[in-house]
Amino acid sequence: MERRWGMTIDLDRCTGCQACVVACHAENNLPVSGPVEAAKGRAVHWIRVDRYYEGTFPDVKVKYMPVMCQHCDDAPCEPVCPVYATYHNAEGLNVQVYNRCVGTFYCANNCPYTVRYFNWFEPEWPEPLQLQHNPDVAVRPGGVMEKCTFCIQRIKRTKQDAAQEGRPVVDGDVQPACVQSCPAEAMTFGDLNDPNSKVSRLAESGRATRLLEELGTKPKVIYLQRGK
Amino acid sequence: MATTPELLPYGRIREDLFRPLSGVSRNYVLATVVAFVIGAAGLVAWGHQLRSGMGVTGLRRPVFWGFYLVNFVFWIGISHAGTLISAILRLTDAAWRKPVTRAAEAITVFALMIGAMFPIIHLGRGWLFYWLFPYPNGRLLWPNFRSPLLWDVTAITTYLTGSVIYLYLPLIPDLAQLAEHRTLWRRTLYRTLSLGWTGSDREWHALERAMKLMAGMILAVAVSVHTVVAWDFAMTVAPMWHSTIFGPYFVTGAIFSGIAALIVVLAALRKILHLEFYLTRHHFNNLAKLLLLMSLLWFYFTMAENLTVWYGNDPGEMAVFAARTRARYAPYFWTMVLLNFVVPLVLLGIRRLRTIRTATIASACVLVGMWLERYLIIVPTLANPRLASASSTYTPSWVELAITAATFAAMVMLYMVFSKLFPIIAVWEFKPHPLEEE
Questions:
Q1: Range of the domain at B117
Q2: Angstroms from A171 CA to nearest CA on chain B
Q3: Is the model's pLDDT at B433 over the cut of 70?
Q4: By the 8 A CB rule, do B14 and B435 touch?
């Protein structure tokens, strides 16, 4: 059976430390926007940590929610792209083909999670960051849209390695950068089509919710949090 | 008020309407130069954007569409001046339409040419715009026909082609009259474009039929074009875009702003080309009544849209609604209501006040109001996405302002060149019927 990659994020564990954000930057060659552009809201973070405040001072509770591309099964970004730059691949990933993208912005405008990021200029890295590019990941030119890929390069690498060594890919073999780096172990990644995978079992938990589920987008990122 | 151009001898009409084609006044040169400079500044701004990247605009996540898309919808809306109005008047055989139609049809063609530029200008990689056309390509890929942007490409290219034909057909008999022009390049131009028109019965019949056919078809195309433009927004899941009435709402707004543009242009032509005898109070009165009707219809749609959102009280939509009517965008919103509804209602609804001057003032107000309407549809929705953490604001940069100004200059320039090359009022339409001639 085809794989269907998905992720669970345990909000009861998340401390909002932003390690996932940093890991993603390093892994995926995200451009460095600089303070001026970042202040304008032009910074590129494939994963961001949203903060929700409950109560009034001094009795305030802060809740953190890491938000990245939800890899929706019915992704609103896909049908609106006129050049097929974004489409659904066989393993359920919502993938972005940078070379096809002409930059209509339509996908980003139709993403209810606002997780698509645009390259406003040619990408830049202050020295010596340009020396630490990940060779497995394309550097995107100015004028194209990009977003979280669930670290598709790691999925491919894992499958290649397993094939070479003549063994199957088992649950836990693939770990996107954010999942790997989470100190609280709040994130789990795996195959939602495999009923025995850790991610499938967590997705069945009573704590499972999906973001903006009511829109019918069928996200493959599942948030875990206890009821009030 | 019985003065109609039909009462004039045909020779005099010909003379009056062909006169603007010859001679260039100082003001004409001055206006052309000013328009050219503004237009060139816009081109420089666009070049800067292509070189440096879209970061030179005021756009930012999540407001990915700003002035460019506003201008796009605005100009495509203006294009409904001509074709639609002239087609309706032609099909209903409204006798007063004669001096109005060509001016209107020219607006359509030029507004479309300008409007169709914006989808290209707003692209992140504008130089690849042709990837949206279906042609055999190295990517081994068709464009995605499920995308409303592809519907746009299809609708707008159809509309532009149709509008050019629709403008051209009724020009042919006039071009034939001009084929004896004394300057050589004009003679060559008119002779080539008149396609050897001799004015035989057969030719007249063919032309009449072609114009009737085109009027009918262009009507359907025009309605579909602005519906598709509306669907760019309505097909999304974005709050206050995902609305079933957007199609007819946009068509109404388009015709509304189109009539306003027509009145402003006619008032300018009347003054500058001294066409007081051809464009009379009668024409402006009729157009003003049409404008008033569209104003009422526009208000009805706007009310229906906003009332249902407010009553429905969906949190996602209410964030946009509040931003529009009570917070950041409220001044624009209420100005829009004033300009699009209150001003036309007072100036055109009260008969005593309805003159050429007030009709022109009301029309200018409507043009500003309808531009604001498109801004208010596009920006507040994007600035207030469903996840409030991503919300932002938008202020255009000088690049967007320069390009916007350039489009208005381009409109003026194209119109001025056109009115120097071709009679802006169809001369042959005043030709007495052969049977009435003696």
A1: 25-125+224-427
A2: 32
A3: no
A4: no
Q: What is the mean pLDDT of residues B296-324?
A: 95
Interface of A with B in 181-220 (CB under 8 A): 211-212, 215, 217
Q: What contacts A134, CB < 8 A, 6 or more positions away?
A: A26, A27, A28, A29, A153
Q: Which of B53, B147, B390 sits opposite A143 (nearest CB)?
A: B53
Residue B20, both tokens: 């603007």
| CA–CA dist A14, B239 (Å, integer) | 30
Position B34, amino acid: V
- Confidence at residue B10, expressed as pLDDT on a 0 to 100 scale: 79
Percent of chain A with pLDDT over 70: 99
Give me the interface pTM, i.e. the ipTM.
Answer: 0.92
Interface test with A, best of B57, B64, B123 (most A CBs within 10 A): B64
Is B101 a member of any domain?
yes
**Alpha carbon distances (Å) from A122 to A98, A119, B51, B57:** 13, 7, 10, 15
Q: How far apart are the first and last CA of chain A?
A: 38
- Confidence (pLDDT) at B393: 92
Which residue has better confidence, A50 or B196? A50
Least trusted range by pLDDT, from A38-47, A92-101, A198-207, B8-17: B8-17
| B134 CB within 8 Å of a chain A CB | no
> Is a pLDDT exceeding 60 seen at residue A228?
no
DSSP state of B63: B
Each residue of B100-124: pLDDT tens digit?
Answer: 888 999 999 999 999 999 999 999 9
Which are the contacts of A164, defined by CB distance < 8 A and separation ≥ 6? none
Hey, what CATH class is A5-224 in?
alpha beta
Please give the average per-residue pLDDT across A54-60, as a whole number.
90
Q: Which of A104, A117, A142 sits opposite B149 (nearest CB)?
A: A104
Shortest Cα–Cα distance, A162 to chain B (Å) = 31
Q: Say how many domains are in chain B.
A: 1
Q: Which of B125, B49, B57, B37 is nearest to B401 (CA)?
A: B57
* In a domain? residue B419: yes
How confident is the model over A203-213, as pLDDT tens digits?
A: 999 999 999 99
Q: In the predicted model, is pLDDT for residue A118 greater than 60? A: yes
Cα separation, B156 vs B231, in Å, equals 13
Model confidence at B416: pLDDT above 80? yes
Residue B434 lies in a domain: no
In angstroms and rounded to an integer, the radius of gyration of the C-alpha atoms of chain B is: 23
B179/B18 Cα distance (integer angstroms): 12
Q: In the prediction, which pLDDT does B2 show?
A: 41
Got the DSSP string for chain A?
A: ----EEEEEETTT-----HHHHHHHHHTTPPP-HHHHHHTT----SSEEEEEEES-TTS-EEEEEEE-----TT-THHHH-TT--EEE-TTS-EEE-GGG-----HHHHT-TT---EE--SS----TTGGGG--TTSPPPPTT-EE---S-HHHHHHHHHHHHHHT----TTS---HHHHH-TT--EEEEETT-TTSHHHHHHTSTTEE-TTGGG----SEEEE----
Under the banding of pLDDT at 50, 70 and 90, the label for residue A101 is very high
Give the pLDDT confidence score for residue B436 in this predicted structure: 54
Mean pLDDT for chain A?
94
Best residue in A104, A106, A146 for a mutation probing chain B (most B CBs within 10 Å): A104
In the DSSP assignment, the letter for residue B432 is P
